[in-house]
Amino acid sequence: MYVKHADGRDDGLLKLDEDSAEAFLDWYHDQKNRGGHPWEVCRGGNSTHISLYAIQDDEGWYMSLAGSSYGRSVETIKFYLALAKQSIPISLRDSAGIVARLTEDDYIGIVPKGTIPRYCGGLFPDTKMLDFMNLPDDDTDKVISAVEWYPIPKVELLPASAER
Prior knowledge:
The protein has 164 residues and is of the alpha/beta class. The chain folds into two domains: 2-103, no CATH class; 107-151, no CATH class. It has five helices and six strands; from the N terminus they run ααβββαβαββα. The longest helix has 13 residues, at 73-85. The N and C termini lie far apart (63 Å).
């Protein structure tokens, strides 16, 4: 299934003996040769693929599903529900953001023209956003009227006598 649905950058995962827990553990804990997408289960771009991670913590193993891009949300939710129905211990990354998107309670960050609207979370440090956009060329006024703008910070010059 990995070969059929992922992009093939498995970091050696496909070479492991499927019947050897020790081989998997050795591979899992050897992070030095990583750079591919061994957890990708549905190929896509940098931010549009779906990944299903195996996670080991103090309580044991669980799965973690990631796929919060706008175009993959419904598919990711169906994936999550199917695994949860099978009683597989699973968490959904960005679940609060996905729920907010589905209930229309999410925020979409508007970024400056010329800024590619991906990975812009740093521009909105106080709000968790999954999606970003530039103002559209059409219906700009309609979008602007629906926007909740951050306050513009007041900028003042120091008096000439102030130390620098």
